[in-house]
Structure formats: structure tokens, C-alpha cells
Design goal:
- There is one protein chain.
- It contains four helices and no strands.
- With 78 residues, the chain is an all-alpha fold.
- It starts with a helix and ends in a 5-residue tail after the last helix.
- The model has no long low-confidence stretch (mean pLDDT 88).
């Protein structure tokens, strides 16, 4: 599980950075939407955050996830 968290946070940060630096690129936003859909279960677990103990790692994952959704909401991906 530790290895999972070591890989997850950098991936979430990368996705967020792509959305931030390539704000006007609809292809990037579309790719991120595809990524979110493909990993729906993962995002659901992060957003529900049903762990009995809140950790720094889980809060960082939640922050990155909500940031990704916030940035996606700013795109018009029609």
C-alpha cells in the first residue's frame, strides 16, 4: 500500500500540472477526462476518504484530486 501512495501522488500532481500549464489545450483536458473516467473507482475512493485515520498523504491526494476537478470544470470540453 505504501508503494501505491508513493506512485499515486506524483501522478495526480502531474495531471494537475498539465491542466494548469496547458489551460487552453482542449486535447489535454479531454485526455484528463478520459483518465478520470478510466480510474473512476480510484477517484471515488479518494473523494469518499473513508479511512478511520486521516493522514497527511490522504489529505494531499484529496487536495490534488479536488484541484484536478476544479481545473476541469473551467474547461469547455464539448
Amino acid at each position: 500500500m505504501q508503494r501505491y501512495h508513493q506512485l499515486l501522488l506524483p501522478v495526480l500532481k502531474l495531471v494537475g500540472a498539465l491542466l494548469t500549464s496547458l489551460q487552453e489545450n482542449k486535447a489535454v483536458a479531454s485526455g484528463v477526462i478520459d483518465f478520470v473516467v478510466a480510474h473512476y473507482d480510484l477517484f471515488l475512493v479518494i473523494l469518499k476518504n473513508q479511512c478511520p485515520v486521516i493522514t497527511t498523504s490522504s489529505l494531499k491526494e484529496l487536495r490534488c484530486t479536488t484541484s484536478i476537478f476544479h481545473r476541469l470544470a473551467q474547461h469547455d470540453c464539448k
